[in-house]
Amino acid sequence: MPRLSTIFLTFFFILAFGSALILRPLMYYFELPASNTQLKHFDTLLVLGYPCNTDGSSSPEQRERVLESVREFKNGVASHIIMSGGAAHNACIEAHAMKTLAVAVGVPADDVIEEGTAKDTLQNVYDSYKIMQSQGWNSAEVISSPSHLRRAALILQHYPILWRTHASEWPGEYSFARILAIYISEIKQTRRIHTHGFPPNAPFPQAAATASN
């Protein structure tokens, strides 16, 4: 009987410890804010990049981010769109493919700005912020895939702008297993940032004040 009690207690502590290791990153990830404002209309939409197909066309996940921005643009959420993304994963500039698709489905070309240098999410936000400064814009709705937005929020908290995140749809081509794998990867990345911080050379504004409306 004592042996069974020892086995039970050992199993209980292993289960509790394992649950803590899993639940803490999950709680941190899902508790990250979705906005810092109650605004309903913004100076611009900011679409975070995703790799193109190798022929320069929009890949499924990139396509869904762009199409969501088009819906928000047509719904009057903002009158401009910044497409952000350089040639990060192949020779194709993401922002150009994204603008091409947006214009093809009815957004005036003059209302879409290409930010075609960023190689990661940190640069997406920083380089787009510089565009916003040049235009005198102080607010943005940030559009990306559902799993990506919480990591984006970690970055946006360092900026003196009003922002909210807005999720695109998952591509119909994606299986549940693929979406789950993407979420797991994002949860790991946000947990790593929470534990170790951003890289020392992370591009943030030098004096980011807390924005409020």
Describe the structure.
- This protein has 213 residues and is an alpha/beta fold.
- It has a single domain, classed as 3-Layer(aba) Sandwich (Rossmann fold).
- It is 47% helix and 12% strand.
- It contains six helices and five strands.
- It has helices at residues 2-31, 60-74, 94-104, 121-135, 149-156, 176-196; strands at 44-48, 81-84, 112-115, 139-144, 162-167.
- Strands 3-2-1-4-5 form a five-stranded parallel beta sheet, sandwiched between helices.
- Strand 2, helix 3 (94-104) and strand 3 (112-115) form a beta-alpha-beta unit.
- Helix 1 (2-31) crosses helix 6 (176-196) and helix 2 crosses helix 3 (94-104).
- The longest helix is centred in the first third of the chain and has 30 residues, at 2-31.
- The termini are far apart.
- Residues 8-21 and 207-213 have low confidence and may be disordered.
